[in-house]
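Worked example 2:
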Amino acid sequence: MSDVTAGTRGGIAGASDVTAIPGDVAAGASAPQAVAAELPPVHRDISLVAGYAYGVNLDANALLASLFIGLVGTACFVYGRRQGRLPPMAVGAAMVIYPYFVPNVLVMVAVAVALLVALWGAMRAGW
């Protein structure tokens, strides 16, 4: 009389012929868990994903040191620009730029101190 076979009614799948599809909620896992299980592992190093040649240092000490050194460098640059003097402008520009390339906090602070001592000596000498 009809095309009803075991487990199928009119072409609609019944409970007996449900197959587990990867990522299917009916398979017992929630959808996000099942999909996440199928994805390849994520590479956590953003420097390689973004195409940087070296890793970005996101240490809180390095960030605060570079921020402070950059602020002092900006102040030196603005002072030199307003006074029309080259040494404070050059030291200020160097202090703003170089923390991007120095990953070690101690080296970063040592370079800042060396630049400020050189600026002090240049200003004392009358440059």
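Residues 8-38 form one domain. Residues 87 and 119 are 7 Å apart (CA to CA).
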